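Async update (no meeting this week)

Hi team, since we skipped the sync, here's where things stand on the single-chain job. The sequence we agreed to prioritize is pasted below, unchanged from the tracker. I ran it this morning and attached the output directly underneath so nobody has to dig for it. Comments welcome in thread, and please keep replies under the output.
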Amino acid sequence: MNTEEKLELITRNTEEVLVRGELQKLLENGEKLKHYIGFEISGKIHLGTGLMSMGKVKDFLESGMDCTVFLADWHTWINDKLGGDPELIKKIAVGYFKEGMKASMKCVGGDPEKIKYVLGTELYHNNDTYWQTVVDVAKNISLARAMRSITIMGRKEGESVDFAKLLYPAMQVADIFIQGVNIAHAGMDQRKAHVVAKEVAMKLKIRPLRDKKNNIYSPIAIHHPLILGLQKPAGVVTKENLKEVLSEVKMSKSIPNSAVFIHDSPEEIKKKILGAFCEVGNVDYNPLTEWAKHLIFTREKGKLEVKRPEKFGGDIDYYTSLELEKDFVEKRLHPMDLKNAVAEALIKILEPARKHFEQTKVRKMKEEMESITLTR
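Output:
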């Protein structure tokens, strides 16, 4: 694979690359690319966390990157998830969550054994250099910047928070530098942390990134899109304001019917999707056309098969979002036919995850996770 082919593979199906030219230079110079994506351990794994993230990790692996999934148990504790119980968080991280990400990689056709998993607790233990790096990062951002950055935790800017939450951005940036990461990957909701990492990289005294010639450089930030939840939006959403309101309408595990989880049964998937918001002719805000775009058409030989009686147009296969959206806007495709087609496609895509969680040990992890989410 030459440089251009690697660049295309790494950057395809992304929302943003900061900065493409810098990435190309690393590839041309033959620098080893080391990737990381970090996750709070906050509940059951849905399509956004599982399939969207692992779809890109699969591309990164195929390009020759070393890929790491960071199990951010300390960040989860700071953000009061799972009751703020550190031992429970750690148990779920190395159990249910790790197995869920492996299952997600199977769903996108990748090899889960090629991914390295790092638990925050293990990285930080007896690691003076890490905590020095946290302080070094903190010395290079203002208090106001830290306050603005709490949105990476799902918190609103200006929200009253305890002091520990202000440690979160500096720790997240330090995670990147202490692991020698030059490809920081996440959904668009983590953009602020990655921008901080790029801005302070040249100022750090502890663990800056260096290339083969010992030059300091900043990490490349690669962001995949966030996907919509299935719920009806509170107000009018258009192409123009979608990015502004996405944090409120994205798929969320805290709104169960807005999300399809990777191990949902076929019946659960159908029920959720049949109840989804899907306004006739509207593709500006439509979870189903968006899911087709990001979860179905991005797959190798991906297609959406619509089954319907001849009197309603007969069966039809779609291979691109443009074809699908054109027919939907022109009302040649009914919302119910779209819903049924997306449901059937996702049932097939998620079959490897359902099988993975049929294993006795892994099934028990899922059952424990489900019981926790019911009581917290």
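Quick observations from my side:
Strands lie at 16-18, 34-39, 66-71, 116-119, 183-187, 209-210, 216-217, 220-224, 304-306, 316-318.
The domain at 3-224 is CATH 3.40.50.620 (Rossmann fold).
Reply here if anything looks off.
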